[in-house]
Amino acid sequence: MIGERMEDVRRRIAFACERSGRAPEEVTIVAVTKGVPPGAIREAVAAGVRHLGENRVQEAESKRRALVDLPTGVRWHMVGHLQTNKVKTAMGLFDIIHSVDSPHVAEAISKRAQSPIPVFLEVNVAEEPAKYGFTLDELPHEHETIARIPRLDIRGLMTVAPEAENPERVRPIFSRLREAADALGLKELSMGMSYDFEVAVEEGATHVRIGRALFGEK
Length: 218
Known about the structure:
Elements: H1 2-20, E1 28-32, H2 38-46, E2 51-54, H3 57-66, E3 75-78, H4 87-91, E4 96-100, H5 103-112, E5 117-122, H6 139-147, E6 152-158, H7 171-184, E7 188-190, H8 197-202, E8 207-210, H9 212-215
Parallel strand pairs: 1-2, 1-8, 2-3, 3-4, 4-5, 5-6, 6-7
């Protein structure tokens, strides 16, 4: 079942790329495994998933212990809010962090990094009070500050769009993030989830974070 869903997600990404003049190889599927048991994660990896995303450090820690037998080449992405007191543990679990939302967190990562760590800066494009991230107005200054911090490889920008019944309603969120990345000379965009990833791909997403569309309803 997960294999069939993976093929469906790939097919939908391919069509979205065709519509926007892109190559499907430009888009990385990050399978979000929040609440997903190790057996289902193994099934996803067997279906070709090579990028796993977790929202919580503690959950990732237990899953990494349970999944020590995964093939080499599987990369773990931190896609949820990262508290500074969890950074030390996170550094031993994740290959890339999508949710740098303050210079304080960036400094904490830098202090514990042995080599440059790939990161995305989180942007709250819609300025939703319950979500983390820089506003678009804050972003240029905050990017300049974080870019001076050593041992960080700023790959691009990340956002979580408001959930909408019609994904077209959040297209402006994704296009504004793309424009912000272009202005900063950043090439990668982590945007789009199960309910809106096709629109995100059309607007330039390089990483889509897919949970429900791969693993089904919990």
